[in-house]
Design brief:
The protein has helices spanning about 5-15, 20-30, 45-60, 85-90, 110-115, 125-135, 150-165, 190-215, 220-225, 225-239, and strands at about 65-70, 75-85, 100, 105, 135, 170-175, 180-185. With about 240 residues, the protein is an alpha+beta fold. The chain has a domain at about 1-65 and about 80-90 and about 190-239. The strands form 3 sheets. The chain has a 3-stranded antiparallel beta sheet with strand order 3-4-5. A two-stranded antiparallel sheet has the order 1-2. A two-stranded antiparallel ribbon has the order 6-7. A hairpin with a 2-residue loop joins strand 3 (about 100) and strand 4 (about 105). Helix 2 crosses helix 3 (about 45-60), helix 3 (about 45-60) packs antiparallel against helix 4 (about 85-90) and helix 3 packs parallel to helix 8. The longest helix is centred in the C-terminal third of the chain and has 27 residues, at about 190-215. It starts with 5 loop residues before the first helix and ends with a helix.
């Protein structure tokens, strides 16, 4: 993984502004060189992708993921903190093994599979489409007609896939101290990390604006300053 300069961070943010969150995550992985040459992160399992994003966060923003959500019961703000290192260690070292259900074999989902169901609003139909997308056939064989999958089948396959690719879905548990409402919520790691990257980019742009207005410096000159020196200049202007 290579370090990005401030100008490169701004370019990354600008390139990803209009992309879907799935594509933003892949864009960040590619920008930091986490994706080996000849290997496409879009074909990685979701667990491997999330492991790479956790590594990205650790290197660029520190090991702690900090955020918040609203209580579904009373709307109170619920904060969470998660260590990236625990996420990185949770993922299996090797590739996720295929799983079997009712004689059919399925591979772990990838970002490409999620992109195929991104427009579906019905959770059950999306799950069925994802299931079909991940079903494996023999070499050169045409896929046989899919059976009628039941909700129990979907639940069983989901559990098996979670065991094979443990970081594919990151679930956070919350209990509200006010109304005692408890629930689990999935953490969308590409969206979470992009929000931090965007906040960092906007903070840089704000500092560029302040220093360019005060001293007439160019953007390139301001970005070339060390972070600590640039912050001190901003403090002196604002002070």
């Amino acid at each position: 993984m290579r370090a990005l300069g401030n100008a490169e961070f701004l370019d990354l943010w600008e390139d990803g502004r209009r992309l879907h969150s799935l594509d933003r995550g892949l864009l960040a992985i590619r920008a930091l060189g986490i994706e080996p040459q000849g290997d496409d992160a879009a074909d990685w399992t979701l667990g491997r992708r999330n492991q790479a994003l956790a590594m990205l966060h650790r290197e660029c923003f520190g090991p702690q993921l900090r955020g918040w959500t609203k209580c579904a019961g009373c709307g109170d703000k619920l904060e969470f903190q998660l260590d990236c290192r625990s996420l990185i260690e949770r993922q299996n070292c090797g590739a996720a093994e295929p799983v079997e259900l009712r004689g059919y074999v399925f591979r772990a989902p990838t970002s490409r599979d999620l992109a195929r169901i991104a427009g579906h609003t019905d959770a059950e139909s999306a799950a069925l489409l994802l299931m079909q997308s991940c079903r494996l056939c023999g070499d050169g064989a045409e896929p046989s007609p899919a059976p009628e999958w039941t909700p129990i089948d979907l639940e069983e396959l989901s559990a098996k896939m979670a065991e094979a690719d443990p970081l594919a879905e990151i679930l956070l548990s919350f209990e509200c101290p006010l109304c005692r409402c408890s629930r689990e919520q999935a953490l969308d790691l590409p969206e979470f990390i992009w929000a931090e990257l965007e906040a960092f980019a906007k903070r840089l742009l704000s500092e560029i604006h302040i220093l360019a207005t005060a001293y007439g410096w160019t953007e390139d000159r301001i970005l070339a300053l060390a972070d600590s020196r640039r912050s001190l200049y901003v403090q002196m202007v604002q002070g």
